[in-house]
Structures are given as C-alpha cells and as structure tokens.
Amino acid sequence: MSLRILFFASLSDITAIRETSVDAAGFTSVRSVFEKFAKDFPALETYRASVLFAVNSEFARPESPVHDGDEIAFFPPVSGG
Amino acid sequence: MFQLVREPIDIRKITDGIRNAEDGAIVVFEGVVRNNAKGKAVRFLEYDAYEPMALRKLEEIGELARREFEIREMAIVHRLGHMDIGECSTVIVVASAHRGPAFDACRFAIDKIKEIVPIWKKEFYEDGEIWIEGGH
The CATH number of the domain where B110 resides is what? Predict the structure, then answer.
C-alpha cells in the first residue's frame, strides 16, 4: 500500500511535484513523511516553520499518524479570499 | 451553497437562489482583484486550491456561522484560475431576518476563509510573479 502525497503553491514549485505516491512502509507520522521530502528537496527547509499539513483533507499536526492509503498534503499558509 | 468555480461568478444567481420571504437582510461581500499589492503594480492573479479540502472548509465555515450568528442561510463561492484586475474572486452571501447578524457573519466568513481554506493566490507583476502566503 502507499501514501498519496500532494504539494501546493510554492511547495509544488520547489519540488516540481503536484501529486506523487510513496510506499507507506516506514512512515509513522506526518513529520516522517515531510523529513523524507526535505531530504530530497533541501529548499523545503525554508518552509519547515510555516508548512501546513493535511491528512485526508483535514488539518493535521506533525505528530499525526499516517496509515496505508492516506492522502497527505503539504502547503504554505493560505491566501485565498 | 458552497462552490469552487473556474468561470466568472454570477452574483445575482447566488442572491436569488438564497432569497426567502423570512429575510429582512441580505449582505453580499465581493472579493475583488486589485491592481496593486504592497506598492507594486499587479497585472493579474491566479488562484490555486486543494479543492476537496477547500470545499469542505467552506462548508465548515457555513456551519460555524449558522451556529454562531442568528442567520438563516449563507452561500460562499470562490473562483479559481486566472483572474484579471477588477474581477470577482470570492462572493459571500448571508441572509438573515436582521442586518446585524448578517454583517457579522459575512465578516466572520471572509476572515475565516483567509485562515483555514486551502486556496492560494499568485500575483503576477511586470517583472515576475510570487505566491502569496498567509492572510492579508
């Protein structure tokens, strides 16, 4: 099974990823997934303090657990309206 | 009615859809694309969204507003994609027996949109473009 990963706005530009998937094995928390991508894309480090997380379309915390089949989104503070 | 759309927003259609004989007030907020930001000339905007979550959050704002204010109904429509100066990016319509709660709920909704709805605005200038992060 896998995790569906989404990036939006500036984070999507940095990673050049809008949507991807990763093998769920080894990931226990939202933070652990972010760490994987922060390693792959060092520019994400500048967003470490401000990045927002969502699991299955609901806001989540870095320590929130992740499970097979979850959709995990990373994005900057919102600016709609 | 809570919607994300990619074409110009028909405000009249929203207000007519919400109108009811019990209402003494209908308050409409229109978010508009401005030609400047922090002293820079803006040519146009693009809005992007995490659509399923954004829609869910718009509905949540409607539920919160109905719980907190004495209003009968609320509608929020947010447009996505390319928008030129002067075009409408967001419409909030609140119907209520009295004007006070309608104004209050409308203000609550736009502030909440800028806080919890995963939508992002990209400003395009003569010399570049930038994603806006965080509410203004």
Answer: 3.90.1170.40
End-to-end Cα spacing for chain B: 25
What range defines the domain where residue A9 resides? 2-75
Token pair for B2: 């809570």
Residue B81, strand partner residues: B47
User: B136 vs chain A: nearest CA distance in angstroms?
Assistant: 8
Interface of B with A in 13-32 (CB under 8 A): 31
**Residue B38 scores a pLDDT above 80:** yes
Contact at CB, B50 and A8, closer than 8 angstroms = yes
Which residue is it, tokens 């930001």? B37
Res. B136: pLDDT tops 70: no
Domain that holds residue B27: 2-126
As a whole-number percent, the residues of chain B with pLDDT over 70 amount to 99
Nearest Cα residue in chain A from B30: A81
Give which of B86, B88, B89 is closest to B49, Cα–Cα: B89
Length of chain A: 81
pTM here is 0.95
Choose among B82, B90, B86: nearest CA to B30.
B90
Task: Tally the domains of chain B.
Answer: 1
ipTM above 0.90, yes or no: yes
Residue indicated by tokens 């308050």: B27
Among candidate residues A14, A61, A74, A10, the one with its CA nearest the CA of residue B53:
A74
